[in-house]
Design a protein that fits this description.
The complex is a heterodimer of chains A (48) and B (245).
Chain A (H helix, E strand, L loop, with lengths): L12 H35 L1
Chain B lengths: L13 H33 L13 H27 L3 H33 L7 H22 L3 H15 L2 H11 L19 H33 L11
Chain lengths: 48, 245
Amino acid sequence: MSWLTMPTMGGYGFYVWGSYVLTIAAMVGEVLFLLRRREALRDRQEHA
Amino acid sequence: MTSQTIHWYRYASPGNLYQLAGQLIPWFAVPASALFVVGLYLGLFVAPTDFQQGDAYRVLFVHVPAAWMGMVLYVVLAFYAAVGWVFNARGSSMMASSLAITGAMFTFLALVTGALWGRPTWGTWWIWDARTTSTLILLFLYLGFISLQSAIDDPRRADRAGAVLALVGVVNVPIIYFSVQWWNTLHQGATIRIAGETSMAGSMLVPLLIMIAACWLYSVAVVLARLRCLIRERESLMTRSVVIE
């Protein structure tokens, strides 16, 4: 696969990129949510 | 004979479990990140275009790991829920609760990426065939487990109720796995076989296996991180003795 054919994925760009973007977004989102949950706990502990 | 005994029951105590989880997370998170980079590179740049499916097959590098994790995490969840129920081990029950969201997320991703693959390959976003339907049921089982637990205020009762649901639902996992053999489904059969020959070219198989390994390690890391949050949220009395990093 070359840089030129990469964005179109041979006509399947929407399906291929769609699934990769969605998967990566879900995983990054999960990690961010967990970090926020941990921060919230830390704050609560400090103010307790 | 070794003179040192591993005191496994030590980790049943949430305080020790909290520290153990914290020590383990980097050992899973760091290799997971590295494998994702390698897997994505090989899957998107190195793996050749399929002569039948074109580039649409690249969806499978995320679809197959997601589907695997959805099933595997449910079995692990049911195991921990059962151990927590039978032995009255809080740590084990909390582990089950920690697994649910990640499992639900992967099952959801398997369904959506499956639709994104099915549209160009099968010509339809969705079909009520045995595998897709049983995978949808798996998502509902996860969501049922999560909502049941959050609906019960007493954590110990929530753990027991969740364990019952998890154990009843675990029957669905072999149904998903063997659905492609038991019924005549549109969904293709297993490509990676434990016994027998794998029907996939090496240049495509390697990125797939790397992505699966990455998803495994990722799951362990986030589940342990969530377990730590859960321990602190639940054991508010105990957290005073836990060293905050």
